[in-house]
Every structure is written in structure tokens, then in C-alpha cells.
Amino acid sequence: MATPSQRRTKGVTIVRPIVYGNVANPLPPRKTQETDHTHKWTVSVRGVNGEDISYYIKKVVFKLHETYQNPLRTVEQPPFEITETGWGEFELAIKLHFIPESNEKPVPLYHNLRLHPYEEDGTILSANKNKPVSSFQYDELASVFTDPTEAMYQILTQHNSSSTLPAKNTNQPYSLQAEQDELKLIEQTYRKVQEQLRQYKERMDTATNELQQVKSELERLRTK
Amino acid sequence: MATSDVRDILQISRPAPGAEGTPKKSTKPEKEKKPEGISRELFQLIGGAPPVAFTKPTYKQKPNLRQKAAHWELREFVHPGRTDQLALLRWTKDINNNITEDDLQEFQNLEVIHYTDEEYHKYLLDRDWTKEETDYLFDLYKRYDGRFMIIYDRYDFPGKRRTMEDLKDRFYFVQRKIIQQRPGQDKAEIAKYNYDKNREVDRKRNLCMLFTRTSEQIKEEEALLEEYERIEQNEKKFAKEREVLIKSLAFQDISTTVKRKRSMTNGSSTPATEIVTPVLSVSASESLPKKSRRASASSVGSSAVVEAHPPVEHVRREKLPPGVIVRSQKIPQVKQGAITKVTKYLQEAGLGIRPSMPTENVCAKWIELQKAIVSLHDLKRHVEKQEHELKTKKQVLEKTKAAAGGSSSSQNW
């Protein structure tokens, strides 16, 4: 039954940025002898400023690797995180369930659990080997809620101020500044691609023209 | 069945009386229009010979067995070519009619234009042919009703060996010459006696070759034909792809220039700086954002609202379906063949395989960038292909030129 508050508010899109990922710390050597686990890790889902997101998220279900006991872990209270130990990296499936007022289906996220401090080329520097690792992804439950239900709309707008990107980097890497930087880089790359496209197009045109000439020349010779 | 029936079925016009012209006449139209299913180049290779092996055999229609059999009757007739009133028998289908002269036309009316001595000396002198031999040929022609097969078989002139083509050539030449020279002759008749000896020799040789091919050769030919078709089809596909690509590029060009212009009017010089985004304006105030955000997203808002968010670089934004989405998951997958290239390109540019800050603007730009890289990749491939083709064609041209310079007759075939 759709109560009045379940009606959708047309033409509204509300964005909620979230961050999800994991931190990992190597375990002290003595512990590794008992089990073969080498790292302690924590995977979490949170607001971009570490703010509470439970006002619109009811629960988070983490799906761990099947070799863990009860790999399906449900967290119903903030903070939405799981701490475990292990020796291997795997892909985590994280499912966000929204509060019932939203009348929305759960949304899946995917995160590759990271334990080792890889460099960009995929190698691990021995110097960094035992340093803790932090691997997070920014994402937007973007247009989270296009046409939200009226109830949800109210809830969301009441919590506006906390869930916004800070202007500058402070204690975390996600900010409006970071967005601008990335935009700039993308724009640069885009223009580079356009330039290359133009060059190739010129090459294409000359090649096509020459080919046309050669072909007609050939045709002429053949029919002669 | 009379030969005229056969001709009707094969749709060959009645041969010139006296001329055993069937092979000549039947090849002629075939040369002009190429049979279906054979490309022009290949047809040139075959050189007008009937495409024996290249047309697939089609199955005959089933005979209609339920129909009542047509009635045929054995009838007597007198051959007009004979003088002795000998009664001959012949099967006919039409019971009501007697055999008419018309039906027997092929046995009579052997029109041979005879030359006089004077004409012979004036026009027909030939180093190879004496008058005696020409007379002998004409005598045979008359005796065997112009059947060159038989004439050729019986031909026995002392000191000479003639091929069928020699005989025909001489005979038709005489006919043509006389029609041309003798006053009162219908000049249009000349066409009936056209004969190209070289062509005929070629044609027969080609037919022989076609006929004596081994099964391996036939197979090879088929394989080549298939290969040729494949190449041609590839070429067509390639050209089509290229067209699409160029069109899409042209479209991109237009859209970027439009954007540039728009950014100029907005007073900012570089596109990069103007992407000041109102993404998270939700927080700015309580009431304004929902309207203005929507307006900027759908790009149809009232002017007042647009002014509130001035220089948004407008990338076409999809209308989002109601419900929750994860923004980065809405970035379309790069097509299979280009994934590695795109990834490599992005990494070289210092970007990851996915945007690190997938906000609305970043995603929109990102998608555009992805598309551009894919087109770049495609275009690159096409350019390389085109240039390769140019190179090979140039080589062919060089060869052809060399061949044309060396011996002008036999070209690169």
C-alpha cells in the first residue's frame, strides 16, 4: 500500500556522497604462527566526512570470501564496518539497504580488499612492506534518490549540511578541490585525445585522397 | 523435337539461313551482359567464355505426372530438299495440322551468294586460297546444307589442311565481300556473316581449358572465388565502419565548437576553468537547491534559475530513472576490443581505470573522454589500414606501370 508519504517527489534529485573501502594492518609475527593470517583489516562504509549515514541507510550487508565463517555479515548500526583477519585479498560485495521510508531497493557496491601497499606498477616496495594500508573509494549514491518518496525527501533534506564535500582536503582526500583537479586532468586528457583525433583524421584524409588518386590511375592504366 | 523447338527453349533467334551460326550467336549476348553472381573482374578473366563451372546447377522442375500425356503422331511428309518424292516419317505433336513447309524450313532456302569469275578476281583474291579451293568449299557448303561440322569432316583438298575456323572465315568473308560490293544487295545482310576468327579460336581454346580442368583446379578456383568475395565484403564492411566513424567524429567536432562558443559568450576563456560545479549545492540552502539542481540537470529551467548556476559546461545528461543509483556504476563499459587500449591510455594520462571522484560532472566528462579514446583507437586502426592499402595499391601501380612500359599488350593479368 502506498501511503501519501510513499508518493514520489517529482523532479528532485538528491546526492549523497559516500566512501567505502578498507584499512589493513600487518599482524605481529608471533600471531601468524598460530593461524596463517597475516593481516587485520577493517572494511567500512561511511559518509564523506565520517558523518553518520544511518539516517538513510538501514543496514549494510558485507559479503566476505566464502572461506570465512558466515561470509554474509549484516551490520544494522553505525559504524557500518567489519573487522577481520586474513591472508588474502578478494572482492567484497557490499549491499546498502535503505530505510523503509525510501521505498528503494538495496544497492550493491564492490570493493577489492587490499592488504598490501602496491606501487602503481603493481610491485610492493620492501620498505613499505609492513606499513598499514588504506584503500578507499569515493562514490556518490549519486542522484541517490531521483524522485524520492516524500517521506524520504524530508528525511534527506533534514540532514543536508553534514553530507557535503569539503572545499579543501583536510583529513581525507575527497573534496571539491579534488573534484576540480580530476576534472582538469580529464579535460586535459580529453583535449589531447581530440588533438590526436584531429591528426589522425588528417592522416586519414590524405591517405584517402591519395588512395583515390592511385586507384583512378590504376583504372586508367588497366582500361588503356 | 525439331531443332526450332530447341532454339525456342534456349531463346536463340533463328539462325541465318545457311550459316551454322549457333555458337557465334549464342556467345555474343553473353559477352555483353555478365551473368549474375560473377564479379566483373572475374568475368574479364574468363573472357566471355560460357561460365560452365561458375553457375550452380539448378534442379529441374518435377515433371507433372498427373497430366495426361500429349499425343504425338508419326506422319509422312515429303522433304522439300529432295527431288524424288520420297515419303519420310516424322513425329509431330499437333494432330490437326499437316506438316507445313514452314516446319521444314531449316532444310531449304540455303541462300548462298555465288560470286562470278569477274567478282572473284576483283575482290576475292587471297594468297592462301586459290579459286579452285574456294569453289570446292562452296560446293561442299551447298552439298551439306551449310553444316560446317560435316564440311570440315569431308574437306579434302589436295595439299591443304584447313581448320573449321579457316573454312568459316573464308566462307563468311566471301559472303560479306560480295554483299558489300555487288550493287542491289541488302547491306544489312552483312551482319549475318560477321565472323571473327581469332575470337572464335580463343573461345574454343578457353572452352577446352575450362573443360579439361582437374578437380583440384576447380577446387582452387572455388576457393579463390570465395576468398575474393570475402575480401570484397571486408572492404565494404570496412568502408561502412569508416563512414560511421567519420560521421561520429564530425558530430563531435560540431558539439565541441558549439561548446567553445558558448563558453566564450559566458566570458571565461578556457573550458577547464569554467567547470565550476554546483554539484553539491544541496547544502547551500534548504529551498533553492532542489529546484536549481534539477534545472541544471535537465537544462530546461527558467532563465532565472540558470543564472543562479551560470557556466556549467553542458554535457548532455541522461535523465535518471527514479530510484537510487551508484554514480560510478552508470559509466558505460568500454567495448570489449578496446578495453586494454583505453585503460592504457588513461593510465598514461595519470588517470585510473575509473574516476576517483565520480561526481556528476566528473562522470559526464569521463564518459565523453572514454568515448573519445575509443574513437581515437578506432580511427587509428582505420588510418593504419588505409595507409597499408595505399602502400599496396602503390606497389601494384608501380608494377602496372612497369608492365605497361615493358610490354603494352599483356597487362597485370
Task: Draw up the topology in text.
The complex is a heterodimer of chains A (224) and B (413).
Chain A: E1 16-26, H1 29-34, E2 39-47, E3 57-63, E4 72-75, E5 80-86, E6 91-98, E7 107-112, E8 133-141, H2 150-158, H3 176-223
Antiparallel strand pairs in A: 1-2, 1-8, 2-5, 3-4, 3-6, 6-7
Chain B: H1 3-10, H2 22-32, H3 40-46, E1 73-78, E2 87-92, H4 117-124, H5 131-143, H6 148-154, H7 164-181, H8 197-211, H9 215-265, H10 288-298, H11 303-308, H12 339-348, H13 360-406
Antiparallel strand pairs in B: 1-2
Helix pairs in contact in B: 9-13
Largest interface, and how many residues on either side? A-B, 65 and 68 residues
Q: What is the annotated CATH architecture of the domain at 1-54 and 112-212 in chain B?
A: Orthogonal Bundle
CATH topology description of the largest domain in chain A: Immunoglobulin-like
Oligomer class: heterodimer
The named CATH superfamily of the largest domain in chain A: YEATS domain
Q: What is the name of the CATH class of the domain at 1-54 and 112-212 in chain B?
A: Mainly Alpha
Give the name of the CATH superfamily of the domain at 1-54 and 112-212 in chain B. Answer: Homeodomain-like
Q: Which residues of chain B form runs of ≥5 with pLDDT under 50?
A: 16-31, 265-317, 408-413
Using only C-alpha atoms, the radius of gyration of chain B works out to 41 Å
Number of domains of chain A: 2
Please list the strands of the largest sheet of chain B in the order they lie side by side.
1-2
- Beta-strand share of residues of chain A: 25-35%
Percentage beta strand of chain B: under 5%
Distance between the termini of chain A: 84 Å
Biased composition (Low complexity) (chain B): 402-413
Keywords (chain B): Chromatin regulator, Coiled coil, Nucleus, Transcription, Transcription regulation
Subcellular location (chain B): Nucleus
Biased composition (Basic and acidic residues) (chain B): 27-36, 386-401
